[in-house]
Design goal:
With 85 residues, this protein is an alpha+beta fold. Helices cover 16% and strands 31% of the residues. The protein is extended, with a radius of gyration of 16 Å.
Length: 85
């Protein structure tokens, strides 16, 4: 992972997702962007980071592992534990 400046120049308010997880985005003076997401583990399921800068957008998708990784099982188990409290 590339080194990031120690202090973000912009930090967005957290967004709370329907299941209670929170997402926060920070931007740094060097142009980098950081996403902070509660509710680990995740797997990277989509990354579109190149193309025509005039018309394309960068896309990064994180998933609780529904593509067969052990992250999917762990996420489903965590949801079950929350429901049985």
């Amino acid at each position: 992972m590339a080194d990031q400046p120690s202090k973000a120049y912009f930090v967005a308010d957290s967004i709370e997702l329907p299941d209670g997880r929170k997402v926060r985005v920070s931007a740094y003076p060097d142009g980098s962007i950081r996403f902070r997401v509660d509710g680990l583990p995740y797997v990277l399921t989509e990354a579109y980071l190149s193309g025509d800068p005039e018309k394309d957008k960068a896309i990064v998708k994180l998933s609780p592992g529904k593509q067969g990784s052990s992250a999917a099982y762990n996420y489903v188990e965590e949801l079950r534990k929350r429901d049985h409290r």
